[in-house]
Specification:
By secondary structure, this protein is α/β, with parallel strands linked by helices. Helices cover 39% and strands 21% of the residues. Bound molecules: nicotinamide-adenine-dinucleotide. Nicotinamide-adenine-dinucleotide binds next to α8 and α9.
Length: 495
């Protein structure tokens, strides 16, 4: 791992690109409008980025449709598409330091997380998905002797991917890899808070041999570029990661336009359940701290609610406070840093508001507290733990998306399950017990797309990622992700 000084020197030599990427080249937005892209740890301008809107969306969609119809990518043999995506993965590996820096500078995530998690996961996702496309077969239906019914999967056409800022490169890749592998044309609208890595990725895709127009990146705001994509009548699929609020709006836009398919990876308020029969309380506490303080709590699967069994509550809380104290916010370019700044002033104000409400509603702050922002010195927040919390409190019900943890207690297994499920969300859950039967029993009852037992957040390209209830539908990663970007076709032949 490079030193702080080496990362700083490297960041000074980076070439940032802020134009839109359409049809294989960078170009300003048609309106000429831009928006500032700011480093949240210094509050300094990185670059002004093209602010795309309806005109750019119309242009990119027309382009993407034309290239889809040409068949240059959509009809390319799967193993040839695989080779292009494998080359892209190789190029990402070659430029891994650059990609690590782009997201760290853009949204404040620690460089060590980029190097150890986001960049390797991105490369692996492209490789694994690319490798899978020439191994997925169609079906022959068991019809009568005088007919032949073929069931195949075809690319859907033009995919619009709208992504958030918390894992900019990784979230974009979870959409791009399967959508491109399946033969679609894609228009990616990254978050206005973190557009830089997506733009560089598109440039590398061209270098890897992806035909022009197959991948277009339109930076811009949600209410302009995002809404125009979501309402566009020539977009077939909307693949979204972001808040549940916007997810609901996208379903309405689809209904108002062409009933495009809408896949949603949305918000969460995931619980950790710590039972008194867990094998290692210290490890459970350290993992509970990582589950809310890594990436500053700006993690969709963050376990922001801890339910701990009454008999071990005090011991667990002491271990938790000690583990959490190691997440002191600092310069994200320092490889020792475990927590950087939150993404911007808006996010800082949100976190502040929720901590205030927790205190007003009777919570007991046992670590951290209200942020003390020094203008010009970054949006840093201390890891914050609120004890004596319960499900009736606003900050326990709503997603904060910051480093704030609610600690609640329970007495019985049934109560723990009921409390965990008492949420509009259903993304992840972490269960700590050494009792195998309890682990299975509780996992089955939890209303969540993903359950981790005696761990949190683990997974790789082989397993689906996504949630239930207001946390969304559909799944990223694994072979199931290809289902989102392909359409079933039946051909019935009378012999
Ligand atoms: P957000 O919903 O504010 O924005 C997400 C994207 O939607 C951005 O690109 C934004 O520009 C765009 N957008 C906003 N308004 C729009 C509109 N009217 N029409 C079209 N597009 C619009 O979310 P965020 O603040 O960027 O990200 C944080 C959220 O993402 C959290 O709720 C988090 O839980 C969620 N998230 C979920 C997952 C998952 O896999 N379930 C993963 C990461 C993040």
């Amino acid at each position: 791992m490079k030193t702080l000084q080496e990362w700083k020197t490297l960041s000074e030599s980076l070439t940032l690109r802020g134009e839109a990427y359409i049809n294989g080249c960078f170009q300003p937005s048609l309106s000429g409008e831009t928006f500032p892209c700011v480093n949240p740890s210094t509050e300094q301008l990185l670059i002004n980025v093209a602010s795309c809107d309806q005109g750019d969306v119309d242009l990119a969609v027309a382009n993407a449709r034309e290239v889809f119809r040409s068949g240059i990518w959509s009809e390319m043999a799967p193993k040839a598409r695989k080779r292009v995506l494998l080359r892209l993965a190789d190029l990402l590996e070659k430029h891994q330091d650059e990609f690590a820096l782009l997201d760290t500078l853009d949204m404040g995530k620690s460089i060590s997380e980029m190097v150890n998690i986001d960049v390797p996961d991105t490369i692996d996702c492209f490789r694994w998905t690319a490798e899978s496309v020439d191994k997925v077969y169609g079906e022959i239906a068991p019809t009568g002797h005088d007919t032949l019914a073929l069931i195949s999967r075809e690319p859907v056409g033009v995919v619009a991917a709208i992504t958030p800022w918390n894992y900019p490169l990784m979230m974009a890749t979870w959409k791009l890899a399967p959508a491109l592998a399946a033969g679609n044309s894609v228009i990616l609208k990254p978050s206005e808070k973190s557009p830089l890595s997506a733009l560089r990725l598109a440039e590398l895709a061209t270098e890897a041999g992806l035909p022009d127009g197959v991948l277009n990146v339109l930076p811009g705001f949600g209410h302009t570029a995002g809404k125009a994509l979501a309402l566009h009548r020539d977009v077939n699929v909307l693949a979204f990661t972001g808040s549940s609020r916007v997810a609901g709006m996208l379903m309405e836009y689809a209904g108002q336009s062409n009933m495009k398919r809408v896949w949603l990876e949305a918000g969460g308020k995931s619980p950790s359940l710590i039972f008194d029969d867990c094998e290692d309380i210290k490890k459970a506490a350290a993992t509970a701290a990582a589950a809310i303080f890594s990436n500053q709590g700006e993690v969709c699967i963050a376990c922001s609610r801890v339910y701990v069994q009454k008999s071990i509550k005090e011991r667990f809380l002491a271990e938790l406070i000690e583990a959490a104290s190691q997440y002191q916010p600092a310069d994200p370019l320092d490889p020792e840093t475990r927590m950087g700044p939150v993404v911007d002033a808006v996010q800082l104000a949100t976190v502040e508001r929720y901590i205030s409400s927790a205190l007003e509603e009777g919570g007991l702050c046992v670590l951290g507290g209200l942020p003390k922002h020094v203008p010009g010195q970054g949006y840093f927040v201390q890891p914050t733990i609120i004890d004596q919390a319960h499900n009736g409190m606003t900050f326990v019900k709503e997603e904060i998306f910051g480093p704030v943890l609610a600690v609640c207690e329970f007495e019985t297994e049934e109560e723990a399950i009921a409390l965990a499920n008492d949420s509009v969300y259903g993304l992840g859950a972490s269960v700590w017990t050494a009792n195998l039967s309890r682990a299975h029993r509780v996992s089955r009852k939890l209303e969540a797309g993903m359950v981790w037992v005696n761990t949190w957040g683990e997974g790789d390209s082989t397993v689906p990622f996504g949630g239930v209830k207001a946390s969304g539908n559909g799944r990223d990663k694994s072979l199931h992700s290809l289902e989102k970007y392909t359409e079933l076709k039946t051909v019935w032949i009378r012999l």
